[in-house]
Structure formats: C-alpha cells, structure tokens
Design goal:
4 copies of one chain form a homotetramer.
Chain A: E1 5-6, H1 17-25, H2 38-51, E2 57-61, H3 64-75, E3 80-85, H4 89-92, H5 97-100, E4 105-108, H6 117-129, E5 138-145, H7 156-169, E6 173-177, H8 180-184, H9 193-199, E7 202-206, E8 216-220, H10 229-235, H11 244-253, H12 258-279, E9 283-286, E10 292-297, H13 299-308, E11 309-310, E12 312-316, E13 322-327, H14 334-343
Parallel strand pairs in A: 1-11, 3-4, 3-5, 5-6, 6-7
Antiparallel strand pairs in A: 2-8, 7-8, 9-10, 10-13, 12-13
Chain lengths: 344, 344, 344, 344
C-alpha cells in the first residue's frame, strides 16, 4: 500500500536540508548568545542587502504570533489600536495575543483576505471625524499579510496605495510575512523585497513556514523605528538564548537564493495542482496564486480523498459541501504532485 | 597560537550531537504541528516516567523567560502575585516579563540565592495578618530556581519544608529548572525528579542551557493544574508551529540517560576547576556545587586571564576586585579543563 | 431671550436634590472608608431587597467604563473573551479599556443594539465546533446593556432565552445598566430587578446617568461569584476612599422609590416628545421606548433647532440628513418639554 | 457619655462645607460632560495660576491609586519601570495597580519614607553601567510622595537635587500629592506649588484626603507632556461623565485660599497633639511634621485609648508595643484636640 500523501500544511517537516546542514556544520562553534553571534550578524547583512535597506534594524524571533504581538506592542502607544482585516491572523487565530498586550484589534472589512487603501483611509478618516474620537481607540498602525490568510496577494500598486494612506496619516504599516517566500516566488507577484522595505515600516520574513525549523526575521527598514526593541523582545519571552539557532537558519535562507528557491518549488507544485483540479472539473473556493489551494468537495469525495491525502479542513459550505486546503512547501516533490493528481 | 577557551556560559554552542542527530534523522518525516506529533508525545511519556508522575501534563516551550511568564500567568489570579527571592531571575533579568503579564513579583530576602521555608511562611503570614491585606497583592504562588541564579542547591529537606508551607497556604510552588540537569547531576544533590514532581505544583526541565538548541519542558505533576494551558501558551506567543523541534530534542534528552550524562559532564568539569582554583589559592565568591564557578580576581589578573579565557563578568566588589563567572556544560571537554587549569 | 433648552444628555446636571440633600445632611458624620460605612451597608441591603437577592454581593464603583472593565476582568480567565454586540459600549466607546485589561471583545451582529439568544448560541457553538478553537479566544461571558446603546429594551422572554444559553454554556451573563432606571420605568418593560438578578450573574445599577453625582452599584446575585473583588476594584483604581459618597447616594436612590421616580419622570417626558415628533411629522431613526429619542432632521432644520435646543449629534445619514439625539432625565421638567414641543 | 473622638484618618467625613455648598449652588446648572464644563475650566486656570505654570495641562481624576496608575502608564514606555521607595504607596498599598498596567515598580531604599537624589542617581547609573541592562527594566521615571507615606517632607533642596538627577537622566519626576495640602501648610515646608511645578514633570494635588468628596488634580506643567492623556484616562476607567463634580470641588479648593486653609487647620491640630504627647512623655515612632502622628503605646494603653479615640493601627513593634496613627484634617476642631489631649 502506498504511503499517504501530505498536503495538510507547510510546516509538517523539519528544515530544508541546506539549513539543517548549516546547523550541523556550525554546531560545535562557540558564539555569544542573544543574537550577538557572527551568523546572526551575517544574516542581518544579507537581509539588508536583499531588501536594499542598508540601515535596517533586523531581529530574529521564533514564531508568527509572537512576532506579531511583539512588533505591534512596540509600535503602538496606549491610546492606539491596530487596524486589521476581520480575517487577519491577529484578529482570529492568535488566542488574543494582541489584547494580552493591552491593544485592541480594530477590524475592518476585507475582500479575499485583503484590505484596500480605501478601507484603511475610511477607518482613519472616521476616527478623525468622530467628535467622540477621544473616547475611542485611535487607529495607530495597519496590519496586512502577504500573502493573506487566504493565499491572495497584494499587488505593488495596492501596497503603494495602502502605504500612502498610512504615511499620510502618520501611522506605520506592518506586514506579516509568515509565508512571504511564496508571495515572492509567485510569477504574478510584482512586489519584491525592496518594494516591501520601501513601503512598510516594519515587516517580517517568515522562516517557520518557509523551510526553517523556526524563526521569523523582523525588519524595520528605517533604523531606530522601534526603540529598545531588544528589551521588548525579551519582555515578550521572544529572545532566544542561543540566538544563532535563528541566525544560522536565516543566513542559510539568504545564501545562494535559497529563500527564493523554496518559494519557487512550492509555487510550481501548487500551480500544477491547481491546473489539474481545473482540468478535472473541481471547483475551487478561491483561486489564490500562492502555495495554498482551496478545493470544494462533496462530503463523500472529501472522505474518500482524506484516506489517501492528508489535507487541511477549511470550512463547511451552506450547501453541504466542504472546503479543504492543500498546501505545498519546499518539501513537496514532483512525485508527490504526480501521485496527488493521480488520486484526484 | 592556541584557541581561546570558552567558559562564558552554558549556551555558547549548538546542541549535544545526539540531539542534533535526532533532528537530522527525523527531518523529512511528516508530522502534525503544535506538539501533537509522536515525538512530542514520546517525550512527554518519558518525562512522566522520569518524574514518576504518570498523570502529569507536559508542554514544550521555547525559552526560560517565556516559560516563567507563561506558567506564572496561568497559575496566578488577578489579585495575586508571585513570591520570589530578590535575586530571582524573574525579579531581575526578565525585562519585566511578569509585570507585562499584569502580575507583581513579591520579592523577599534570600541567602545565597535561596528562599527559606521560614521566609515564605513569614510572607504568607504577614499578608494574612495585615488588616489592609485587601489593598495589597496576595502571595499567590512561590517561585524558586534549582539550581539558583547563584548555582546553589535546595536540599530535599528544604524543598519539603517550602512545599509544606505552600500547601498549607493553598498556593502553588513553581520551580524554574533552567539548569536542572546540573542540579540533578551534583553528587551532593538529594532531590531527584520524582521528589520535585511530588513537591512542586509546576516546574520546568531546562533544555536550552542543558544541551538542546532550545526548549523547556513544563511539567504540571497533577493533571489539569492549569486549564486551557495550550491557549495560554499560544497567547504568550510561546507555541511552536513545528512543535516537534522541541519534542524531538526532549525525546533525545530523556533517552538512554542523556540528560543525566550532560549534567554529569558539566559537574565533573566544574568540580575539577573548583579544586584547582582552591589549590592555587584563588578565592571564590560563593562555593556553589553546580556548573557555575564564581572566582574573585584582581583587575590585572582578570584582564590577563580574559585574554585567554572567555568568562562572564559577574560583579565588581567594593575592594576593587572583580567576580568572574565560569560555566561548564555538556560541551566542556577534559582537554578544555586541562588547558584552563594550565593558564590559571 | 429665552434660555436654551438642554436635551443633549442625561448627565448635564448635578444630582437629584434628594440625593444631594442626603450628602449634605450626613456630611459631618465620621465613618470608615472604602465602603465599610453604615450608609453603604444600608444601600447594599436595600438593593438586595429590591432585587430579591438576599445573598447578593454589592459593590459601589464610580463610572460605567470602569465598572465594565473591572467586572469583566474579574469574571474572565486569561483564555476567554467577552461576547458583545458590535455596537456595545465596551466595543466602541470605552477607549480600549477591556483590551487594556488583557481581554478580547468578541463582537457579534446585533439588531437595534440587541443580541439575540440565537446569536449568542451560534457564537458559543462555533467555538465548540472549531477544530482550531484552542488557537482562538473562548467566549467566556456575555455582555448586554439594558437599555441598549440605542435605547432599546430586552423583553423578559429575550433575557430568559439569553440567560438559558449562557447557563447551558456555563458562562456568566453580565448586564450593563448604566441607564437601568429608564428601562425599569418604561411601561412596556416586563423585566424587573428581581428578574434581572435571577437571570444575570452580574449587573450594575447605574447611578451617574440616573440622578447621582456618580456611582454604579455592581450586583453579583450569587454570593462569592467574583472572589477578592474588593482587591480587583482597588487594582483597577476604582475604590473610593470616601466610599460613602457612593453609598449615601445609592441609599437615597433606593429609599422611598426614588430610583423608580427618576425613571418615570424621564420616560414621561420622552414619551411626550416622541408623540409630538410623530404628530408634527418628524421621522425617527429608531423608535426606542426609553429616555433617548433619535430624530432625523435635514441639515438646515438641525442647524436652526440647535440654536434653541442643546441636542446630541448621533450620525450623518447617506441621504445628507442627520440623526440627532434628545435625552431626558430626572431634571427634565414639564415646562422644558412644553417649550421643546413649541420650538419643534 | 461623650462621643468617641475620630482621628483614624483624614477621609472620614464628607467634604469641607465650602465645597459642598458649591456643589449645591451649581446643582441645577446644565453643563457639558467629561470635564469640558466651565467650572472644570475655571479650576484648571486657578491651579495654573497657583502653580505659576500658565501652560500646564490639568486633568481631574477620582482617586489616588487610579491617578498613580494612569499617570505612570502615560509616562512610561514598555521597556521602562518606575523608581519608588520600597515604602511607596504604589509599591505596597495599591493592590498591584501599576503591574496591572504592565509596568514594574523598581523599589529602592528609603529613609523615613524619602528617596535621596543619591539613591535615584545610583539606580539610574547602575542600569547604565550594567552590561545586561537590555535584559532588565530601565528606570523610566521617578515616583515620590509629598508628604511621604510616613508624613515626612522633602525640602526644596532635596527636591531640586532629585529633579536635577532626573533631568540629567532624561526621565520624568512624578509627585504623588495625595496629602499635598498638609505639606504646603507645614511651617517648615519650603517647597511651594510653583517650586513643585518647576521641578516635577507631573504631580497631583490631592483632593480626597484634603477636604473634597473625591478628586485629584493632575498637573503636567509642560503642555503636551502626556499625549492623548484624555483617552488614557478613559481607558483606565478614570473619566467622570459628570466631570464637573471634580471641577467644582477644585474650583472651590482654589478659591479664597481654601486649600491652604484646610492644610493649616490640620497642621495646627497635629502640632498641638504632638506637643501634648511629648509633654506627657509619650514616645513617637517618627516625628513627621505634617498631619499624621505616630505614637507608640503599650498594649493596655492602646486598648484603653482605643475605646475613646478612633485611631489607625500602624504596626506592631518587636518589643510588644504598638504604633498607632492619629490623623488630623480640615474637620478636626479645636474642641476635638482639647478632648483628645484630655484623654491622653
């Protein structure tokens, strides 16, 4: 009997072998802790170069929720909240981590997981026009994800428009890049890292879901954006004693184009699956161009397929059908895709 | 020219090779996230067995400050604070992480980093006797470290006495075991893991400073001690998506006595260094039996030695001399110790 | 030139004269602080009697936002949030006070400011059915206002249905009664204080907007519902040193039916205004039966009328017209209403 | 049988009659809420004049713990804590209100309740010199009380020295003036309101314990010191809907020298009591010059006297004797003092 196929998520394996190799090769070296080691510094330099942001402050944290909570806490003042799509990760699946830090998530409507510049502008303007605004939470920053929780992408023009609204309002724009590799590798994408660094005041380059064991690289393109961020990271319990564990991985990710290659592998696999689904007449809930595929199945088909393929449950539709999520990653092989297409 | 010697801390290298090997061997396996994988489950079972606590709830977090903040937040109610030595890690070097979570650290006097049962009893009793107690923060749990921040150890009798005071008062006893391997491996130690599990309501078995890349294993010996702890972990940004990264490491640490062996290696090295220091007439600031050595040097000697040995600065003495800390670990070889003794 | 008419809100004057008289009469008496005085105790007893809740814990706080934040913080555990209408006061006009305390407000849809039992049940059930629920904030209590922010009322049947859902789910129901006097005095109302005490786990009887200088009486019908609430009140900065300032006022409010009388005065005035508006052909945005009246005006009319009547701005309509709020209170005289009707 | 004498505290009565009269006289006037009324504005102007701080931002809050928590939260950034004497009110009797807001109280040694400039400088310097300072909480502001919790006073020279240390370090100095009237009225005092306004970055002029029903006036001598403070006040539940209740009282307190007169009455009474105690051979635990008297009694005497005089218990001495506190206020009459001296 053939093995089961694994498409449930993009964090089901360890690390990309090139990353793990670097951890093995450097294992017995002695280095300073807390990110002060040469590997972390090298990784910071490579990230600055990739972002064309030579002055950027770069920090390595462990996971996505932690990174969001820490950055948002660092950028907001007490009277401010963070504007996010009602489907945003911070608004839904972070167990109240932002509120634990004392801040309100100001949710606004979205389309396919995306905010529009108009929505952000309307939110900011509504606060400004409200005679009772001092009794309410001020929109103090904007949170977006690239790709979004639905796998969709902001175009460069859309990012420029949102950034312009934020700068006009004097509030920072923050991008959650948990799966940024997959955005960057999508052929349709026109927002490269330097664009993101130019348009955002803070963002993170995801490691955990893009081939690392763990780790997220926070980038503040403008030096000094978040004063005493090191202490805030510590206060949030987000400071690794062996900081090099993240630094070495990001050094590897930004050496010889590994981060790009990881993205391309996943996107190529996802594109083949999407094409096969379309060809075979499957309906997709949302045609997003990145590494997540949302296929609509009737219950019997979902059950049968689940016996062969490990998928993620997404949601039940009112008509009784179910949306399942397939995710590809650096670990998805051409053979895996062939076999998946074979059982569809 | 010989390489520098590294004794600055116990987290200057990667992981013990046996741990790293397990990460490599398992790297391409597909597992569920968030600690639901079989390696995490196996590690939990081995820890339960080592603690003789078959009902224990076991969770894997990333680092020490994070673990302290998360456990303390889970165990305290809003009107309570955590009692700690004025030298306790949570009171000094965690950047206010406990207060960030809304809780007061109620500091009390210590001797060589240790609390006594009498001190704890006095603190609890003072609150009970205070007519204004409802205007103050109630002592709601007790935090101790084994070994302490000064490398000293609680004896079994001392732990039993503190535990008795806590149980009498109806408040939990929590032990920070960041360096627990070194306590357990010290010949003079008489408090084994099952004793700790019997006497504490929560504790953590340190990984980061005891041979892992990262990771701390939180143990609640009594099932259900901290309801919804998984969600609290997530809320604190402490939940690893690839939870197996911690699980595999703890599985390795609790296989074939690795955790014990790591402790013994470090203690043997530290004992040899302490003996050599005594023999050569060096004064030690505190004779603690675990993996940390506190040697008093005059400034010139400190400077000279620092050129050859990477040590940690501990404190300046009023008489102008300086206390330097040497720490051993699993990575300290007999040759390192020989060379260190040679340059002393 | 006649004086301007004041209908902008129900907290534009000092206190009902009977209340102020009691403050004057008792002014030179010596009493214990922090609510331990005999007036506070008498007020507690009268409130218990009025609620037919002889075991109730009763506390006097200062203002509405403070009371909401304190009670919600006392009733929620860290992994829980409070369910509220998206228009609820805690979700909109409390400057993030709930989030400041670390808790998420879980907003759900409303109709005329009201939650339905079905909506609450759906929210609770959705959490229970969600495979990822441990990554999300658990609905841990339900917040409603009586009357709502729109002046509408829950019927007894509606309250019973919501209460049943909450009890079935094992989560407390909390009612914000900032303007409760006006609900109780509305002829159509069928939910009396004993009903509220029977159906809610916590509620407050509003003083500030119902004739007192300040003060809100928190009632936990079941003794011991919120352990150490006194300390939590202090921690929230909500404890009055001269606690009798609130106690004397509530003692007066619950003596000789003053709280009822205050409500009736306001409702009678509001009913006359509503009838006059209808008769004169004014459109009302929402016909709520309590002390707030929402009249739709075209801009010229709004401007002209604002010269004579101090009203509250409510919102701009898409068609260019504006909704203005008129509020009555204990201080609204029949003459004020006559004059207002005269200028409409 | 003569009535009991009341010296237990300075908040056992209502308000000074002149204050209550103003509340009565203005009761039926219609004013805007939230401190936007003309009485609050008049009070602000009078306070600015009394402080010789024409640009000052002045806000009226309700009570002391609330005011401390709100001001400290407004002035600290996340990586900072507040330096306070280990006996400071915020460190002991505020139920953890500062920590509830996420901030650490950095306690330092005191003498008779007072901090010295040297102690503050040492604390600031220790942080600067600490190589691990980024792992610790930065001293971000200094909290002092005038008079202190022990009734002692800072001299002008002492305040100037502390202020100089703070300004040199770039951190604000905040004074808790819960009983400021009694400091200002003490003959030995040489720090007047304009001095305080010149030397502190924030302070509050206490109302609750100085003759008002409630209310504390926060003064930021430099305009804009605490941005969006109104919203922070609201977020802390500290905003009075009927803001005039505080404004009218402070308007009265700063009209015709009432605040000074209240202080003088209390100090004259306290001075007479202290003199009588000395003459009759009583020992005082601490000779503080303000309105609190700390007398040492043996248990039988304490019991006997307590039957005639309502005093506050302060502490038990190791030798079995007890320290009782007598407090005077605006409400203490010459007759009260005569009778007290008679029974001593």
């Amino acid at each position: 009997m053939p093995d089961k196929l694994y498409f449930a998520s993009d964090y089901m394996e360890g690390a990309h072998p090139a990353i793990l190799n670097r951890l093995v090769q450097t294992n017995m070296e002695h280095t300073a802790g807390y990110g002060l080691d040469p590997y972390s510094e090298a990784a910071r330099e490579k990230i600055r170069a990739a972002c064309q942001a030579p002055e950027a402050d770069v920090f390595f944290l462990v996971g996505g929720t932690q990174t969001n909570a820490t950055v948002i806490d660092a950028l907001l003042r007490p009277w401010q909240g963070v504007v996010a799509a009602e489907t945003g990760h911070i608004a839904t699946h972070e167990a109240g981590a932002i509120e634990f830090g004392g801040h309100k998530v100001l949710t606004v409507p979205q389309i396919d997981g995306k905010l529009s510049a108009e929505t952000v502008a309307r939110c900011v303007e509504a606060w400004k026009q409200d005679d009772n605004r001092e009794h309410t939470v001020m929109p103090g920053m904007v949170y977006i994800s690239q790709p979004t929780e639905y796998g969709t992408l902001y175009s460069l023009a859309e990012l420029e428009a949102i950034s312009a609204v934020c700068r006009d309002a004097g509030i920072p724009l923050y991008m959650d890049g948990a799966r940024l590799a997959y955005a960057l590798a999508t052929p349709a994408n026109d927002a490269a890292l330097p664009d993101i660094a130019r348009l955002c005041d803070a963002f993170y380059i995801g490691g955990t879901k893009c081939g690392a064991l763990l780790g997220e690289a926070v980038v503040f393109p403008k030096r000094g954006t978040a004063p005493h961020f090191f202490t805030i990271v510590k206060q949030h319990g987000a400071l690794l004693a062996k900081g090099r564990v993240a630094g070495i991985q990001f050094d590897a990710l930004f050496t010889d184009g590994l981060y790009d290659a990881i993205g391309r592998t996943a996107i190529a696999a996802a594109d083949r699956i999407r094409a096969a689904l379309a060809e075979k007449g499957y309906e997709q809930a949302l045609v997003a161009p990145t590494n997540q595929i949302f296929v609509i199945l009737d219950p019997e088909k979902a059950k049968a397929l689940s016996g062969k393929v490990d998928m993620g449950f997404w949601e039940n539709l009112p008509d009784g059908r179910v949306v399942m999520r397939l995710a590809t990653s650096w670990a998805t092989t051409g053979g895996d895709v062939d076999r998946l297409i074979g059982v569809l």
